[in-house]
């Protein structure tokens, strides 16, 4: 995630009119050189954004509707996957119906205030939900692996739902706190990236967001290390009370691997947003920042689809009656 800045004297209305103006080429200054974007470049970038957003929307909607039922919502991990697919869907919808078409037709067809709101909501709100939800998924695996009998599925579901609402409160509070006249971002066609009104304020917000993501990554890594250690210990025993059947063993491994891959996905996206290779080309910036943001949410949906493509239900008896196990 990265933004650029414009001169403080330029209002969003002026920027809006600048991008609305129909010109043959768009230019962007970089050092002592001027970069030029042709209409073919814009069509290519816009088409890429629309394509990956459409793919991501389909994948995340498959996950969303797969888990949106009373039966599937009885599983805490599936509740978290449902929440993840919902936030992913929002980003893909913005890319499909706003960012992609805006670039392709070289026209900010929505009012400036809408551009401002979508930029702030997507960059600071929905983006924050990714690492927050991922941390919840890792903690859920930790509880399931270390305390399989202490916390019932119903109790874990309640914890998951309450935690999701808390995460949305944190994300939306961050948006509200940064949403004022001098501290917001909006999408700009001339550089194919989000642009900040106030550079100092934006850098401060990004610093907070980066530190928060790093803290969540450390927490997640700690829990994942503990999960892996526990799994190896359980698998080293010929008969483990925590893993009563082979299907449960493979389910534990599958969900652990899914969680780890999704953790790495967000971590790599965070590293990518720092542009370590120093790319200054406009299209390069587009793929590093705008396209990457859409690609990560699409790939996240693909991962969830892959690991839950054969979801089915099986009953086994227990002391308290029939117990439903999702495998």
UniProtKB/TrEMBL annotation:
<feature type="transmembrane region" description="Helical">
    <location>
        <begin position="86"/>
        <end position="104"/>
    </location>
</feature>
<dbReference type="GO" id="GO:0016020">
    <property type="term" value="C:membrane"/>
</dbReference>
<dbReference type="InterPro" id="IPR017452">
    <property type="entry name" value="GPCR_Rhodpsn_7TM"/>
</dbReference>
<feature type="transmembrane region" description="Helical">
    <location>
        <begin position="159"/>
        <end position="179"/>
    </location>
</feature>
<keyword id="KW-1133">Transmembrane helix</keyword>
<dbReference type="InterPro" id="IPR019430">
    <property type="entry name" value="7TM_GPCR_serpentine_rcpt_Srx"/>
</dbReference>
<feature type="transmembrane region" description="Helical">
    <location>
        <begin position="42"/>
        <end position="65"/>
    </location>
</feature>
<keyword id="KW-0472">Membrane</keyword>
<feature type="transmembrane region" description="Helical">
    <location>
        <begin position="124"/>
        <end position="147"/>
    </location>
</feature>
<feature type="transmembrane region" description="Helical">
    <location>
        <begin position="208"/>
        <end position="233"/>
    </location>
</feature>
<protein>
    <submittedName>
        <fullName>CBN-SRX-96 protein</fullName>
    </submittedName>
</protein>
<dbReference type="Pfam" id="PF10328">
    <property type="entry name" value="7TM_GPCR_Srx"/>
</dbReference>
<keyword id="KW-0812">Transmembrane</keyword>
<feature type="transmembrane region" description="Helical">
    <location>
        <begin position="283"/>
        <end position="309"/>
    </location>
</feature>
<feature type="domain" description="G-protein coupled receptors family 1 profile">
    <location>
        <begin position="59"/>
        <end position="327"/>
    </location>
</feature>
């Amino acid at each position: 995630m990265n933004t650029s800045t414009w001169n403080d004297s330029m209002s969003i209305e002026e920027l809006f009119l600048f991008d609305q103006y129909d010109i043959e080429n768009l230019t962007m200054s970089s050092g002592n050189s001027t970069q030029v974007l042709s209409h073919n470049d814009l069509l290519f970038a816009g088409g890429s954004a629309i394509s990956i957003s459409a793919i991501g929307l389909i994948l995340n909607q498959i996950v969303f509707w797969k888990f949106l039922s009373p039966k599937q919502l009885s599983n805490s991990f599936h509740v978290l996957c449902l929440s993840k697919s919902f936030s992913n869907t929002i980003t893909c919808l913005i890319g499909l119906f706003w960012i992609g078409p805006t670039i392709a037709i070289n026209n900010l067809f929505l009012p400036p205030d809408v551009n401002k709101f979508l930029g702030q909501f997507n960059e600071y709100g929905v983006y924050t939900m990714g690492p927050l939800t991922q941390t919840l998924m890792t903690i859920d695996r930790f509880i399931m692996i270390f305390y399989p009998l202490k916390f019932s599925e119903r109790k874990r579901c309640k914890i998951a739902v309450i935690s999701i609402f808390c995460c949305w409160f944190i994300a939306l509070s961050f948006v509200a706190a940064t949403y004022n006249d001098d501290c917001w971002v909006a999408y700009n066609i001339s550089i194919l990236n989000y642009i900040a009104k106030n550079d100092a304020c934006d850098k401060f917000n990004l610093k907070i967001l980066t530190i928060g993501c790093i803290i969540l990554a450390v927490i997640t890594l700690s829990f994942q290390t503990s999960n892996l250690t526990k799994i190896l210990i359980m698998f080293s025993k010929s008969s483990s009370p925590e893993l009563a059947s082979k299907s449960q063993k493979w389910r534990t491994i599958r969900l652990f691997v899914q969680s780890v891959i999704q953790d790495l996905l967000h971590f790599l996206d965070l590293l990518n947003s720092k542009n370590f290779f120093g790319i200054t080309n406009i299209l390069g910036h587009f793929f590093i920042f705008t396209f990457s943001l859409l690609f990560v949410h699409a790939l996240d949906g693909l991962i969830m689809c892959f690991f839950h493509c054969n979801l089915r239900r099986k009953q086994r008896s227990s002391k308290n009656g029939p117990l439903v196990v999702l495998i």
